[in-house]
Amino acid sequence: MFFFRFFPLLALLSTACSCAQLGSIHQNVELPIWQSPHRQDVRRITLLPFEGDAEFAAAMQAHVMGRLREAGYFEIILLTSPTAGSAVEPDDALLHRQLQQARAARVDTLVRGRVRTGYGRSGMGNFSIGPPLHKAVMTLETLDVASGKVRDREQVMKEFKGEVELHPDSGQSEADLFERLARNCADQLISEIFVPRTTISVPLALADRKAKEVWQGNLLARQGRWSAARKTWEAALARDPNSHAAQYNLGLASEACQQFGKAHDHYAAAIELEDHEAYRTAVVRCRLANQQYLLALQNWQGGGQPLAALTTPRGPPVAWTSPSARGVEKSARLLRRLPAVQ
């Protein structure tokens, strides 16, 4: 009887304590980071028009192009003259013309792609059972411009079994689902052919329940939808410029794109609002990651030449200088607290 009499009061106190602690609770998320490229002979790239489903081919070509630019290790060269062939032009003649244009532009690698989407079947003969199966298949092929020979050719298939509304990106149309599957194919192919990505587990800042955009962005980030999460956190920051959670999470989104200058600015702004250990650790990780990025970029571009003598690619901004020996030692000590790379 005593318990039931005081239960509402206990529940109220528990809720109040939870709300008071909400801003300091953190939930881990997988942060994608680029690693060193697979190949040392791929630097200047031209993407040819992708083939396959007209509804998705151009979008996937743009997605691959954006990802390669985002990595920061490559120059994407747009040829001035058209590379598409006519209906009567043989494939060999078209490829010969494309290679000639690429050589004139000093391109070293051509990239061709093909996208196909459709439905799978579960059952026997003409009878299908169970939920529908949505599939996307994508092929990427790289050609050495000097020789005209194929360097790499990989194919990836992604599928989702179930109704559209049951997909993690709920509320979308079937076309959106197919495009999502195709994008997942493209991301895997980029990792396998060009530059690999790995993930590290980092804390994701939470906020008061009233900050709906922060929570929506966090949900998108946990689904791996960093671009959409970034837009949502930007809206949260516009609504509340004093949101340290939105500032920190925007730093994570920038770090995922190797935009270390922007990431540092967001982390520093978050620390000014809330001096949290996770925010200070993120600054250290960002600085160390930028040093590794600069070193990899230097080796990638010029085989050890001074970075100032090299041409900076069209990629994320880099705005860091090498720290002192004491700073490196301090950074190394703090880095030991970070989760291991998965």
Write a compact overview of the structure shown.
Helices cover 47% and strands 19% of the residues. With 342 residues, it is α/β, with parallel strands linked by helices.
Descriptive account of the structure:
It is a single chain. This protein is of the alpha/beta class and 342 residues long. The chain folds into two domains: 34-198, ABC-type transport auxiliary lipoprotein component (Rossmann fold, 3-Layer(aba) Sandwich); 203-342, Serine Threonine Protein Phosphatase 5, Tetratricopeptide repeat. Helices cover 47% and strands 19% of the residues. Strands 2, 3, 4, 5, 8 and 9 form a six-stranded mixed sheet that branches. Strands 1-10 form a two-stranded antiparallel ribbon. It has a two-stranded antiparallel ribbon with strand order 6-7. Helix 6 runs antiparallel to helix 7. The N and C termini lie far apart (51 Å). Mean pLDDT is 76; it is low at 1-25 and 303-342.
